[in-house]
Write a structure and sequence with these properties.
The chain is 38% helix and 20% strand. With 537 residues, it is of the alpha/beta class.
Length: 537
C-alpha cells in the first residue's frame, strides 16, 4: 500500500504545517512517510504545495499521483492530470456547500484543520493520534482541535487504515539530521547569514542554543561569518558555518585561509538552483565541483554528501571528526530537497565515532604549530596554552613564521598534502559508498537522489544502485570496481552537466555515457526515474 496526498495553497495559508501534522499522525500510526515541499520565493501568495506520500513499507521519495487533495486556494485543477480516479478533493467551496460552521470557514487556518480532521476521519485513524500530534505542535491548540473534531465527525468512512504500531516512527528532515549531528559532535559555535535552504539549521540550532549551551549568531554577511568562525576555531571552539551557493562563493578566500593556516572548520552547504540568485527555493546538485575545488592553491579538504537524515547525522559527525583531527575544512554538501523534506525511520543511531578538538594537553616549550610529520598532521595547540601558538595565512616554517625559502615552501606543501593518504585510509571505515539492489546494471548517484533511486529499484529488475557519499577524498577503487563489474552504467543527477560523472572520469578515467539529468529545480520521483531508465535500457 502506497498513497499520496496533495496539500496546496498560497504562501501564508499554513500548508506546510498541515502537511507536517498529517505526516506526524501517519507516522504515529506506524506508517512510513515522506513529505516533499514545493514553494516559490514569495512570503505571501503564489501557488505552493506539499506532497505527503505514505506506505506500510519504507518510502524514501514522493509520488506524482494523488489519492486525496486538500485544496486551500481553489487551484487544484492545475494538478488534475496527477489525480487518480476517484480521488477525494477537499476545499473551502465544498465546506460551504456542506454548511460547515461559520467560525471555521471564516478563520484563517481552521479550514485547514477541519479538512485535515475530515481526511483522517475518512481513513478511520484514531482521533487521539490527531489530537495528540496537534497538542504537541501548537501551544494554542483549542480552536484547532475544535475544528479537527468537527471535521472528523462529519467524515464518512472511505477506507480503513489500520494502526500498524502505537510506537510510531522517527520523523525528521535533513535539517534535523545535520543539526543533531552537529550537537552530538560537541558544537560550541554556529555562525551563519540566512540563505535558503541552509537557514533551517540556523533556526533549529538557535531554538536549542540555550539548552545546549551553543553560541548561535547571525552576522552581517558570509565573509564575516567564515572569518569569525576561523577565529573561534583557532581559539579552540568546535565551530560550524552554514550557507548556500552564493554565500559559499563569498567564503572561498577564507576556505583557502583554513587550508594554509590548518584551522579546522565544518561548513554546511545546502544547494539550491543557480547560478547567481537562481531559483532560491528550489533544489539542485550544481555545486559539487565548486565544493570540491573551492579556494586558490592546493590543499586537502573533506566533502561529504549525505542522502537522508540518518546519513546527515553520520556524515556531519564524521566531518567534525576529520576537520579537527586533520586540521582542515570539511564541507557537508546537502540541497533543498534533503534539507526540507521529511523522512521516516524505524530507528535512529549515532555513529560510534566521537569528534574531539584534538588539542594536545601540554604543548611544551619546543611546540611547533606546523611541525613536519610523517602523516602531515601537526599536533594542535590553542592560544593560552603557550605564547608560541601561531596561525599564518602566508607560507610559513614549522614555528609559524612567514617564509619565502624554496625548500621550506616545498616541504610545507608536501606536509599538507600528505594528509590525503591518511584521510583516504580513515574514511574506508565509514562506507564512502553504499549499494542497494542486485543486478548487472548499475545506477550511480549521490546526495538526495538516493531516495527516488532506491524506491525505483523494485520496478527495475537487474539494476543495483551505488551511492557515492564521499566526494573528497574520493573512493576511487570502490567506484572503479563497481563500474568494471557492470554491463550498463547510468548516471542520475539533479544538474545539467553530470558533475559526479565528470569527477568519476577525472578520478578513474571512465566516461559514463548514459545520463539521466534533471535541472528544472525539481527533484526526481521514483515513477519518473523508472520510465526514463527503461527508455535507455
Amino acid at each position: 500500500m502506497r498513497k499520496s496526498v496533495l496539500i496546496c495553497g498560497q504562501a501564508g495559508q499554513g500548508i506546510n504545517f498541515t502537511a507536517t501534522l498529517l505526516g506526524r499522525v501517519l507516522s504515529s500510526a506506524g506508517y512510513y512517510v515522506f513529505i516533499y515541499r514545493d514553494y516559490g520565493s514569495l512570503i505571501r501568495g503564489g501557488h505552493n504545495f506539499n506532497i505527503v506520500t505514505f506506505s506500510d513499507s519504507p518510502v524514501h521519495s514522493h509520488d506524482n499521483k494523488f489519492e486525496a487533495v486538500i485544496d486551500l486556494d481553489q487551484k487544484a485543477a492545475q494538478h488534475r492530470s496527477n489525480l487518480v480516479k476517484g480521488a477525494l478533493v477537499l476545499n473551502k467551496e465544498k465546506a460551504s456547500q456542506e454548511n460547515w460552521p461559520e467560525d471555521i470557514l471564516e478563520s484563517k487556518y481552521q479550514v485547514n484543520n477541519f479538512l485535515l480532521g475530515f481526511l483522517v476521519g475518512g481513513w478511520g485513524l484514531p482521533r487521539k493520534l490527531l489530537i495528540q500530534s496537534t497538542k504537541r505542535e501548537l501551544k494554542e491548540w483549542t480552536q484547532a482541535v475544535k475544528a479537527m473534531n468537527w471535521g472528523y465527525e462529519q467524515a464518512s468512512p472511505r477506507e480503513e487504515l489500520p494502526v500498524r504500531s502505537v510506537a510510531g516512527h522517527y520523523f525528521l528532515t535533513g535539517t534535523n539530521g545535520v543539526s543533531s549531528g552537529a550537537i552530538a559532535s560537541g558544537l560550541d559555535v554556529y555562525l551563519s547569514y540566512p540563505m535558503t535552504p541552509a537557514t533551517g539549521v540556523l533556526v533549529e540550532l538557535a531554538r536549542q542554543a540555550k539548552t545546549r549551551k551553543i553560541l548561535v549568531a547571525q552576522l552581517e554577511d558570509e565573509v564575516s561569518v567564515i572569518n569569525s568562525a576561523l577565529g573561534a576555531s583557532y581559539g579552540g571552539a568546535m565551530t560550524m558555518v552554514g550557507t548556500s551557493g552564493g554565500g559559499f562563493a563569498l567564503m572561498t578566500e577564507a576556505i583557502s585561509l583554513a587550508g594554509m593556516a590548518e584551522i579546522p572548520l565544518v561548513i554546511y552547504l545546502s544547494q539550491r538552483t543557480g547560478p547567481s540568485t537562481g531559483v532560491p527555493t528550489y533544489t539542485a546538485q550544481g555545486d559539487l565541483t565548486f565544493a570540491r575545488f573551492a579556494g586558490h592553491g592546493e590543499f586537502p579538504r573533506v566533502v561529504v554528501a549525505p542522502g537522508n537524515p540518518q546519513e546527515a547525522i553520520d556524515r556531519t559527525m564524521e566531518a567534525f571528526y576529520l576537520a579537527y583531527r586533520y586540521r582542515l575544512p570539511a564541507i557537508i554538501l546537502s540541497d533543498k530537497h534533503l534539507s526540507e523534506s521529511y523522512y521516516t525511520f524505524d530507528n535512529l543511531s549515532y555513529p560510534r565515532i566521537r569528534p574531539d578538538r584534538f588539542v594536545v594537553n601540554r604543548p611544551g616549550r619546543d611546540y611547533q604549530s606546523y611541525a613536519l610529520t610523517a602523516n602531515g598532521i601537526s599536533p594542535r595547540a590553542v592560544p593560552g596554552q603557550a605564547t608560541w601558538v601561531r596561525a599564518n595565512s602566508y607560507e610559513h616554517d614549522q614555528l609559524g613564521f612567514t617564509t619565502e625559502e624554496a625548500s621550506m615552501i616545498q616541504k610545507m606543501n608536501e606536509k599538507r598534502l600528505r594528509k590525503e593518504k591518511a584521510l583516504g585510509q580513515m574514511v574506508q571505515k565509514w562506507q564512502p559508498v553504499r549499494s542497494w539492489g542486485r543486478g548487472r546494471n548499475l545506477i550511480i548517484g549521490w546526495g538526495s537522489t538516493q531516495g527516488a533511486i532506491r524506491d525505483s529499484l523494485s520496478e527495475l529488475p537487474g539494476y543495483r544502485f551505488l551511492q557515492v557519499s564521499y566526494l573528497a577524498p574520493f573512493p576511487r577503487d570502490e567506484v572503479q570496481q563497481a563500474i568494471k563489474r557492470a554491463e550498463k552504467v547510468i548516471l542520475v543527477e539533479n544538474n545539467a552537466t553530470g558533475l559526479l560523472g565528470q569527477l568519476i572520469a577525472m578520478e578513474t578515467g571512465h566516461l559514463i555515457k548514459d545520463k539521466i539529468l534533471k535541472f528544472d529545480g525539481r527533484p526526481f520521483a521514483a515513477d519518473e526515474l523508472v520510465d526514463r531508465i527503461k527508455k535507455i535500457s
